[in-house]
Amino acid sequence: MEVAAGLIKLQTSHQETLAEWQQRMNESVEQVTASLKNEQVMVESWFKLEIESNSYLLWYMRAESLEKAVQAFQASTAEIDIFHMQSIVKMAEGSEQIFAQPLLDFSA
């Protein structure tokens, strides 16, 4: 099992896209779940946080293989995956991410 997490800095004009993304993803739970199963992802979580007046998305993923999960996501033609990627790209300020170094990850 592999884990990863990171931060994506958001553009100042991200609010409308963020609200649309959050609503559509929440309304598409079955499609999202099917995509996660296809990618062999056990957990994918997203959080919004503020650091020094800047907005960020914090993401966390647990998968059998992060490399395979990313490849499956990038190759996906599922409407929800395309929407998800387009929304993140639209909200992000640039293409750089801050990746977190995993230290501890437990599950029961």
Give a brief description.
By secondary structure, the protein is α+β, with helices and mostly antiparallel strands. It has helices at residues 15-27, 29-39, 66-75, 79-91; strands at residues 2-9, 41-51, 54-63, 98-99.
Account of the 3D structure:
This protein is of the alpha+beta class and 108 residues long. It has helices at 15-27, 29-39, 66-75, 79-91; strands spanning 2-9, 41-51, 54-63, 98-99. It has a 4-stranded antiparallel beta sheet. The two termini are 14 Å apart. The mean pLDDT is 95.
End-to-end distance, in Å?
Answer: 14 Å
What structural category characterises the helix and strand content?
alpha+beta
Summarize the main sheet. 4 strands, antiparallel
Radius of gyration: 14 Å
Strands ordered across the widest β-sheet: 2-3-1-4
Uncertain stretches: none
Strand content: 25-35%
General form: globular
Helix content: 40-55%
State the helix count.
4
Counted beta strands: 4
Mean pLDDT: 95
Which sequence of SSEs, written as H and E, runs from N to C?
Answer: EHHEEHHE
Identify the notable features of this structure and list them briefly.
108 residues; alpha+beta; 4-stranded antiparallel sheet
Question: Strands, helices and their partners?
Answer:
Elements: E1 2-9, H1 15-27, H2 29-39, E2 41-51, E3 54-63, H3 66-75, H4 79-91, E4 98-99
Antiparallel strand pairs: 1-3, 1-4, 2-3
Helix pairs in contact: 1-4, 2-3
